[in-house]
Write the structure tokens for this entry.
Amino acid sequence: MRRLASLVRVGLKANFGLAILHYRIFKEKKDRWLIPLVVLAAVGLGPTFYYLLRLLKDLYGILLPLGQQQAILTFGILGGQILVLLFGLYYVISAFYFSRDLELLIPLPLKPFEVMTSKFAVILVNEYLTIAPIVLPVVISFGVMSKAGLPYWINSLLVYLWLPVIPLSIISLLVIGLMRVVTLSRKKDALIIAGSLLLIAAGVGLQYTFVRSAGSPMDAQPMIRFFSSPDSLLGRIGAGFPPSVWATKALAGGFTSAGLTHLFLFIGVSLALFAGILVIAEKLFYRGLIGIGEISGRKKAFSKEALSRRISSGRRPVRAIFAREWRIMNRTPIFLLNGVLTVILLPILFLIMARADTGGSDSTMILKALTSAKPFLATLAAACFMAVTGTLNGTASSTFSREGSQFWMSKVIPISPREQVAAKFLHSYLIALLGIGASTIVLAGMLRLGAGALLPAVGLALAAAITLTAVGMIIDLLRPLLDWTNPQKAIKQNLNVLFAFLADIGILVLLGFLAAFLGKIGLSGNIKLIVLFAVLLVLAVVSAKILVKLADRRYREIEV
Amino acid sequence: MIELRSVSKSYNKGKVKAVDDLSLVVKPGEIFGFLGPNGAGKTTTLKMIVGLLKPDAGSIAINGLDTQTDALACKAMTTYVPDYPAIYERLTGLEYLNFIGDVYGVPKADRLERIEKWLEIFELTKAVGSPIQSFSHGMKQKIVLTAALLPAPRVMVLDEPMVGLDPRSAHQLKELMREHCDQGKTLFFSTHIMEVAEKLCDRIAIIAKGRLIACGTMDELKKLAAEPGQSLENIFLELTET
């Protein structure tokens, strides 16, 4: 047990790097600028939380007279668990199978379940941070509004600590099974990607079922029965995933017998599932892990002619660097899942969720009505959806970080930083284009928007994507994360991706204010679009110039 | 030719002095060996020459061009092999070599001839179509060496290039180092293998705690020894004793 505790402690220290951060901020005084930036980000997020809390208060006010207020808790808890399911997949695959410290851990006299537990602990802490913005506001505001006593707060803490365990255990089970199959195959990367897509598809299918079961229409009699029972709404929301109902009842019930029964049920099932995972891990974890790094290569030598065909006759450097970026991104499963696949999957997910809502009629009807009533607003919303789909995937904001320890090559090759950055920009922009294309198809199909409405939206999105891509690259160039040992860290756990996300949202909100201002001064729809497009072009030129200038300086300064 | 003039580099805001007022000249046509205990400043010096690190003071010139003001021109005539072959593992060996050929602007005919030659010498012909990820440490080291030779650079900087190589490949490497310098080109390399340095190098520099403590031909270094006829290993131990 002491060995396991020590392993978990080392794992947490190595992954959350508090000692390194403390050293860099207070000893080396290198990352001091992080402190005001974190404060700024917190201040920036302030209004969002303010509105979330106001929304929760209003919702509580509406649901209280109906006796359905506990449904708010189920919303928050279920939301947190869905988030665990979504992020958990990336975390589990990379932590269980692709962290480089595994090479050090396997030869040590440790049992497979001990190694897996230490990795599980790291993912658990990650998940606590991931679900905090969703679950904490709900649980805290509900406690305050219902004037809950101490038992509520104690149960809240216990439920929060156990909240990610059930979804994480389910994912771990699926991933361990998947990897056992993957190691048997020669095409490991392809299988990992296919398996991940299958798991995502299963997740989407599950959510589709949740939304449909919560939103299917009702007749009058069941409706009356529905509102006469205090648990009906939470039961309906949590129908697809009962643990969220148990957790709600554990919180709302406090130390009553119902509260404690549900608390024990929730923790008991979590424990049982986790124990089950440990038993399976003991048998299968190392079988899937050992051999995952074995990549079988070509056995045959190229003939002189074949070699001559494959030797390039000389690409221009920008093309060569673009090809390098494209290949490395698409051949690293974690990068591929975050880049190309995300920009294509996101609009499809949007489409599925919209169709799932009451059979696909209501939300689509509302959107169509909105589109015809407010065409300018619809164009802006469509442009925003396209730009967000294309750029908020971390490709640009991890473009330097993804090079990691290989960045030395970018420093020694005789290619100017401007050309290198141009190639990287083209790569990130191409992925943005894929996203814009996919979302255009989805919007055209779903809302039947004509070319008159779609073309201006595409134009705005293309111009906005230049700035958003350049801003992401600037942020990553300012503090590239090059010392990672697990590719997950370069993209999913890279703070630059979060900072770029906040900056991008800020830019889009400012553009929204500008559009509102243009409307207030009485400009017509087309003139407003032209002004916005011109502003976006100016922003694109300015951000591209800043990027190029910064590249000249930072390529000299970054030491590897 | 490589010229270092009063080069200094420190880490941790000046608290750790890695290289201290180092001056030396590596002439064209000579194999120059760089020796020193662990942490003496060898890798830091090599990294400053190829532009991976920026000197705090002093200047470095390659064939008369300053590495800070004429960085791209210096890089175009220099190739570097690091102590650990951290290269693009997701590319195949051939894709990596093509990338290097593209960025150094090597014409197709030269590219084909040199790649064929070095792949055969390093016995990589069968492996070159596979992802670098599937290579052993020694194979990765050999593909990095092939890439460094591909542009036929005027200056080569190698950081402990023998590590991980089998005896046959190490022998081939020594031959090619000699061949490179016989063409009037420059080669600067660090090593811990005294025997290699003694037999291969035209001149040797010994560095300790960031400072140059000896520099010269083998005969000149022997004169620094307390007793005559000592091996380079004994001279090294004597000079770097703390």
Notes: Chain A touches chain B through 47 residues (CB under 8 Å). The mean pLDDT of chain A is 82. The CA atoms of residues 277 and 460 of chain A lie 49 Å apart. Chain A is about 80% helix and 0% strand.
